[in-house]
Write a structure and sequence with these properties.
232 residues, alpha/beta, Rossmann fold, 6 strands
């Protein structure tokens, strides 16, 4: 997504948690980019990052909340540490960033919040329990923030990908099988997600809408995560 925005002519601010060298390498490939480090497990730091950017950037039009942790736990037993990390990083931090952005960012033609959720919001299963709970919580904010926006030009959107990258500890063969477990029996490309984010950045849709980029996976009823379906 950062590459797509950069190649489309945007100035891109690349947030990273711990992968400084990867962020620097990505920024070096783009015409106009900078990097910023923040631990999203720290709520105050997440707000501070957004406040700093709102002061520094004269025309901050889009924030893409895509960072998350994806740690395995199950519906049979909630792991408190996994749950707290998932809810803070996947739900609380992006919500705080969005709220700060909408309150303080300056933009000439309205602002766009693009909240990355997961096709699991429509097609849940008991695996990755805390992660899925956090994505459902984050999804709920899209409608609420949209209803409460003060500027009618602002838009709050959801972007719900399906299986895009290798899941957890999948090998290449498992990834190939699992990524075709959708209605179209095809792999959804990362460029499709990036193109959807660019489309949402223009704000043509009504605020509060979610785009599913998953080759129809969310229309299925899958009893387990594709990680385990592929192994079965």
């Amino acid at each position: 997504m950062a590459s797509a925005f950069g190649k489309a002519g945007w100035h891109v601010v690349i947030h990273y948690g711990h992968s400084a060298s990867d962020a620097e390498a990505l920024a070096a490939t783009l015409p106009s980019a900078e990097i910023i480090q923040t631990d999203l497990a720290d709520a105050a730091a997440a707000v501070g990052m957004a406040e700093d950017l709102a002061v520094r950037l004269p025309d901050w039009r889009v924030v893409v909340n895509s960072a998350s942790v994806f740690e395995l736990d199950f519906a049979t037993s909630l792991d408190p540490v996994t749950f707290e990390r998932a809810m803070q990083i996947n739900a609380a931090a992006p919500t705080l960033i969005a709220q700060t952005f909408l309150a303080k960012a300056r933009a000439r033609d309205g602002r766009r919040v693009i909240t990355v959720t997961d096709q699991k919001i429509a097609n849940p299963n008991p695996d990755f329990f805390s992660y899925t709970m956090s994505k459902h919580a984050l999804d709920a904010t899209i409608a609420m923030l949209s209803m409460d926006r003060k500027d009618p030009r602002d838009r709050i959107y959801g972007l719900a990908p399906g299986a895009i990258l290798a899941s957890h500890d999948q090998d290449e063969a498992e990834t190939e099988r699992s990524h075709r477990m959708n209605l179209l029996a095809r792999k959804t490309g990362v460029e499709e997600v990036a193109d959807a984010a660019l489309f949402l950045s223009e704000g043509w849709l009504a605020s509060g809408e979610t785009l599913f980029i998953d080759s129809g996976q969310h229309l299925l009823s899958q009893g387990r995560d594709v990680l385990f379906l592929a192994r079965a």
